[in-house]
Amino acid sequence: MKRKGLRFYAKIYCKILAQDLKSKMSYRADFIISTIGMIFTNISGFISFWILFRNFTSINGWGYYEMLFLYGFSLISLTPVQCFFDNNWSLRQNVYTGDFIKYCFRPINMFFYYQSEVFDIKGLGQLAFGLVTLIYSWIKIGLGFTPLMLLKITVFLITASLIMIALQNAAAATCFWIQNSFYVLDLAYRFRDYAKYPITIFSPVFRFIFTFLMPIAFIAYYPSLVILRPDKVPLLSWLSPVFGIVFFWISYRIWMHGAKNYSGTGS
């Protein structure tokens, strides 16, 4: 069978995306309510920072605007997993009802086909809020702006996104082997809340966990150091793009391994 290229998948994705958006627009009230909920969730996070820093001028050497930078950076980096990989939350149900079997017989990559069926447009609101927060903190810190800095932040935002996508892919894929896998996925999702904090505020044990076992430190902390503190960039920050690609590839292989060995209800 002839191997399908990028143009083929881009064309298929656009068609699937159009159908998904049409179905969502038919329930406009649900879309509006959920979007408002997403906005208020992000606003509450912003308010929590403001309340915290009314009592503390800094936390372990990190000032208010630097922490706000991490918060905005994490929101932007989490947007791709919110928009493009939200269907992972339905994987467990599709596996146990047997509906996932339909993806096994289509002449197209199963991972691509499954993930492309859902686009969570609410994530665009999160992206906008993250951009405003990042730009605001950027100006307040006085970082300046150059084409090189734009290139750096683009690369490291992509890197951070790959880490979170990898965590969710691997956690969702456990449903192929674990019956109560929802708790694994939910745990991975909840850990993202810690991504907006510098790992230096945690104990050495949690620093190790958040760096090597549950690598959420690569979602905002390590990538942000390249912009925030260019004179003191640790090696792990420069290695972030490598880790992002490797973790994503591993999670993809785990997901595909489970999908290819799926044999229907009760597998």
Keywords:
267 residues; mainly alpha; 12 helices; 2 strands
The helix-strand sequence is HHEEHHHHHHHHHH
Q: Would you report the number of β strands?
A: 2
Percent helix, as a range, is: 55-70%
How many helices?
Answer: 12
The coarse silhouette is globular
Structural class: mainly alpha
Radius of gyration: 20 Å
Distance between the termini: 28 Å
Low-confidence stretches: none
Provide the spatial order of strands within the biggest beta sheet.
Answer: 1-2
Main beta sheet strand tally, sense and closure: 2 strands, antiparallel
Taken as a percent bin, the fraction of beta residues is under 5%
What's the overall average pLDDT, rounded? 86
Describe the structure.
- The structure is a single chain.
- This protein has 267 residues and is mainly alpha-helical.
- The chain is 68% helix and 1% strand.
- It contains twelve helices and two strands, in the order ααββαααααααααα.
- The protein is globular and about 55 Å long.
- 32% of the residues are buried.
- The model has no long low-confidence stretch (mean pLDDT 86).
Quick overview of this protein structure:
The chain has 267 residues and is mainly alpha-helical.
Topology:
Blueprint: H1 6-25, H2 28-55, E1 58-59, E2 62-63, H3 64-84, H4 91-97, H5 110-116, H6 123-141, H7 147-173, H8 182-190, H9 204-213, H10 221-228, H11 235-238, H12 240-260
Antiparallel strand pairs: 1-2
Helix pairs in contact: 2-3, 2-6, 3-6, 3-7, 7-8, 7-10, 7-12
